[in-house]
């Protein structure tokens, strides 16, 4: 409200002296009030402009950080591709960087990262999503008050602790299984329990907090009307959860899966301790090496071409993560687009059916009128 309008609205309650602003507390109060409104509007605009500038700068630095990392990896990771050869690095199976005639094949390392990440996601995501469903829909309040902080605490445990627990608990157990399976074998090379299975189990446990917390938040964000409507139509609680709640929270759950994939691919310290860190074909009881563990294990003493190849491994890892995130994002958008198209078609069909029904009713009314 402008200053002139404010004075006009309050002029009826003022005397002649007060209208001139020369006497009385009421006129002084109105003048101060009008001035504060104008001043508040100007200060609000200044705050909004400042906030817009701050947010723009933050967004710019975020984009700049991604661009800088990409540029840095390209500059440091591509020279080895030209020196060694793209085919010899990406499709070679022999990794002997310190030999007299060095070999830099990382095919088994790439396959190990793919297989290990896939199996850890296959194990961790169902457990995480079902745990989130339990916490959001089925758990008693007292039990949820205990389980949820425990899950959040699990997310804060350092990765090296997972690795140490894997060495002390998981590797001896896997070694017992390995000795039982390959008892009497003369060709199998025993790993002491440090193999692909141990790495997959540790990764699956490490991604659980991310999947559980984000999936639970997505389920709690679903409008309660969805659940009420489903139950009112006669659906059971299990049907409501799996046919209504989970599809409605799909975008949040897919986000949890993407973050879980990033956590699994990027983990290094815990996997270094439990996987054996040897370059082999990724079979369950083989000691294996992931892309991250290859960099961690050898960057400390690498030099020359060996160091450049390790940067190439980092570039492959970076491209791998970007590819997975892009594919999952496009998959999510395509599904949302298909659902919107289906909704639009159903609405148009409903409107067309309604229009046809109205025409029939009008025709029937006309016939009855003629009769």
Summarize the helices and strands and which ones pair or pack.
Blueprint: H1 3-9, H2 16-19, H3 25-77, H4 79-84, H5 86-90, E1 95-96, E2 103-104, H6 107-138, H7 141-155, H8 159-181, H9 196-220, H10 224-232, H11 237-248, H12 250-266, H13 269-274, H14 291-298, H15 305-370
Antiparallel strand pairs: 1-2
Helix pairs in contact: 3-15, 6-9, 6-12, 7-9, 8-9, 9-12, 10-11, 12-15, 14-15
Structural class of the helices, strands and pairings? mainly alpha
Helical residue percent band = over 70%
Q: Find the count of extended strands (DSSP E, 2+ residues).
A: 2
Q: What is the end-to-end distance?
A: 64 Å
Unreliable spans are 5-23
Average per-residue pLDDT, rounded, comes to 82
Written as H for each helix and E for each strand, in order along the chain, the element string is HHHHHEEHHHHHHHHHH
Q: How would you write the strand order of the largest sheet? A: 1-2
């Amino acid at each position: 409200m402008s200053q002139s309008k404010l004075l006009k609205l309050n002029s009826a309650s003022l005397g002649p002296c007060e209208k001139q602003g020369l006497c009385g507390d009421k006129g002084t109060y109105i003048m101060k009030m009008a001035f504060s409104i104008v001043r508040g509007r100007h200060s609000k605009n200044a705050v909004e402009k400042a906030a817009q500038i701050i947010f723009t700068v933050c967004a710019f630095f975020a984009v700049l950080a991604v661009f800088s990392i990409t540029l840095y990896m390209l500059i440091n990771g591509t020279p080895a591709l030209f020196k060694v050869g793209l085919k010899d690095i990406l499709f070679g199976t022999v990794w002997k960087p310190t030999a007299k005639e060095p070999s830099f094949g990382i095919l088994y390392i790439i396959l190990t990262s793919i297989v290990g990440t896939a199996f850890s996601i296959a194990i961790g995501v169902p457990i995480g999503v079902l745990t989130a469903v339990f916490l959001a829909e089925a758990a008693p309040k007292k039990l949820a008050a205990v389980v949820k902080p425990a899950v959040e605490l699990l997310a804060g445990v350092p990765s090296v602790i997972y690795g140490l627990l894997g060495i002390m608990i998981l590797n001896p157990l896997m070694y017992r299984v390995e000795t039982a399976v390959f008892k009497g074998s003369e060709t199998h090379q025993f790993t002491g329990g440090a193999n692909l299975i141990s790495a997959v189990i540790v990764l699956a446990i490490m991604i659980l907090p991310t999947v559980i917390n984000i999936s639970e938040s997505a389920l709690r964000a679903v409008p309660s009307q969805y659940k009420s409507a489903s139950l009112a139509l006669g659906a059971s609680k299990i049907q409501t959860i799996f046919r209504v709640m989970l599809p409605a929270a799909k975008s949040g759950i897919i986000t949890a899966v993407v973050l879980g994939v990033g956590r699994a691919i990027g983990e290094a310290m815990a996997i270094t301790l439990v996987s054996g860190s040897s370059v082999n074909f990724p079979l369950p009881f083989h000691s294996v090496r992931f892309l991250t563990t290859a960099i961690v294990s050898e960057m400390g003493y690498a030099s020359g071409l060996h160091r450049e190849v390790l940067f190439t491994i980092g570039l492959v890892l970076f491209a791998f993560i970007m590819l997975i995130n892009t594919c999952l994002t496009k998959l999510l958008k395509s599904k949302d687009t298909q659902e919107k198209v289906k909704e639009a078609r159903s609405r148009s069909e409903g409107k067309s059916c309604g229009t046809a029904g109205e025409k029939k009713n009008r025709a029937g009314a006309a016939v009855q009128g003629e009769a």
